[in-house]
Amino acid sequence: MGTLRALVLCCTLKPSPAPSSAELLGREVLAALADHDVDGDLVRVVDHDVRFGVSTDEGDGDGWPAIRDRLMKAQILVVATPIWLGQPSSVCKMVLERLDAELSETDEQGRLRTYGKVAAVAVVGNEDGAHHVTAEVLQALNDVGFSVAAAASTYWVGEAMGGTDYRDAGPKSDTTGKATRTLATNAAHLAHLLTAQPYPAS
pLDDT tens digits for 17-68? Predict the structure, then answer.
């Protein structure tokens, strides 16, 4: 069983070096994936000049093609997003819109180039909405060809009307941490299976 690659797209609204709870949870997913022969890295999308659009390259210095190249070299994609107004962040929605272009990208056997890649999601917020956000993001990723493992999400939400961020909440090893470990175990398992036995030709 060889080493796989994972990419976390962190969809915080905050450019670096501002602290980000979404980035923290995304990095915790990478740490958990490392226990299953998966190497990976994280891209904070807002740090790049990603243009709005639904193509693989919007031109004029668009930052998406370089991110997409890293995504195509990975077997696991993790989207880490905060909750805003009960929704995925606007950065997350832009990423999903850019991934819509993959519906037109096929390999020599007619399969989407995203076939065989496994998707997962990590969500943080200070209000309820984690299940809604998870459902929106995973459905969109499945629509554009990604496979979804069992329990492919992890999340943390603070108290309603509260002001505590995940990064300030202290260790959550028995709740969010357990979900993160399960996500990593199942996503890595499915990615190894699909690498060894790809989907048939379309």
Answer: 999 999 999 999 999 999 999 999 999 999 999 999 999 999 999 999 999 9
What count of other Cβ atoms lies within 10 Å of the Cβ of residue 136?
Answer: 18
Structure tokens at 20: 């980000």
3-state secondary structure of 188: helix
49 burial type by CB count under 10 A (0-12 exposed, 13-18 middle, 19+ buried): exposed
Rg (CA), the chain: 16
The backbone torsions φ and ψ at residue 168, rounded to the nearest 5 degrees and listed phi first, read -105, 0
Q: How far apart are CA 53 and CA 56, in angstroms?
A: 9
| Cβ 95 vs Cβ 10: under 8 Å | no
**Per residue in 161-188, pLDDT tens?**
778 889 888 888 899 999 999 999 999 9
Per the CB < 8 A criterion, the answer to whether 116 and 109 are in contact is no
User: What's the pTM value of the predicted model, to 2 decimals?
Assistant: 0.96
Angle at the Cα of 74 from the Cα atoms of 70 and 77, rounded to 5 degrees: 95
Q: What is the DSSP track for 23-74? A: HHHHHHHHHHHHTTTEEEEEEEGGGS-PPSSSSS--STT-SHHHHHHHHHT-
How would CATH label the architecture of 4-196?
A: 3-Layer(aba) Sandwich (3.40)
Q: How far apart are CA 154 and CA 146, in angstroms?
A: 18
3-state secondary structure of 123: strand
